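Summary for the steering committee. One of the milestones for this cycle was to obtain a three-dimensional model of the protein with NAP bound, which we needed before selecting residues for the alanine scan. The sequence and ligand used are listed below.
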Amino acid sequence: MTAQRADRQTRLRIGLMGLGRIGSLVAGELAAADDMDLCWAVRRTGDGDARPSGLAPEVAVTTAAEWSPGFLREHPVDVVIDFSHASAARHYPMLAQAGCRIVSAISHYGPEAQPFLAAAARHAAVLHSPNITLGINFVLVASRLMQRLAPHADIEVVEEHFRGQPETSGTALKLAQALGLDPTRQVNSIRVGGIVGRHEVIFGLPNQTIRLTHESISGKAFGQGAMFAARWLAAQRPGRYTMEEAVRSTFAATLADDLAAATPAPGGGRVRWSSAA
Ligand SMILES: NC(=O)c1ccc[n+]([C@@H]2O[C@H](COP(=O)([O-])OP(=O)(O)OC[C@H]3O[C@@H](n4cnc5c(N)ncnc54)[C@H](OP(=O)(O)O)[C@@H]3O)[C@@H](O)[C@H]2O)c1
């Protein structure tokens, strides 16, 4: 352990569900974290020896069938990060009763998963985010703030993805919904080449344009987002949370610190960005 690494008592113990395409990247990010220990990972059927290269020998790997309250007692964790499959939500009540907070990055849950999420949230803090990158949630929170500052701004959302992506990005639709835009007129899709994912919110103001852009470069960003969520969730009471709430409250705390440090302007008061676009 290096001098910068957090004290053992303050380090978060993490369990990871899913060691597939994204889960393996997340495991790599967790291994590099200064304030977290990946204690175990669970797969659906993968045999016990099938470990992603780079997974430390002390990380226990098990399967959904062998997973039990006994395993959790033997390998206690503070937060479970889920990059497995919607069907794994049935394990959430057991995890919550064992004292684990849950960060779920599952892209979509059907109605059958909802009772499991609700039952878990009665015992522990549960955060579900279908897009868990910090950047896109920052764009969401910052866009809403920008819209409040400039209520008459002309706004469009542009999303770009690889040629093969068939439908409009769910993230773009979420941005449009959060900003009260018409998804059929104000969300513009571009399909070209191998773009991983790019979302842009454009604010047209009288004499200038403001653009908030997020670009995905690597799936590792999902791991960094999940780790941010885990740190935030560690201080929350039982209940359901979203990534937007985690980012918004961090945003607000940072802004409050910034304001406290700044010298107040003479007269103070709120200034509108513009009266009309
Ligand atoms: N929120 C976000 O921003 C975000 C971003 C990317 C992906 N995702 C979501 O993350 C999930 C994983 O994506 P992926 O591309 O990594 O999928 P993947 O490559 O198919 O990997 C899925 C992993 O989950 C395991 N698994 C499946 N069912 C399970 C169960 N019931 N219990 C425990 N483990 C189980 C699999 O086990 P085996 O190894 O034994 O097959 C595998 O390791 C998907 O839901 C995806 O939509 C979310």
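Key point for the committee: The domain at 8-132+220-253 is CATH 3.40.50.720 (Rossmann fold).
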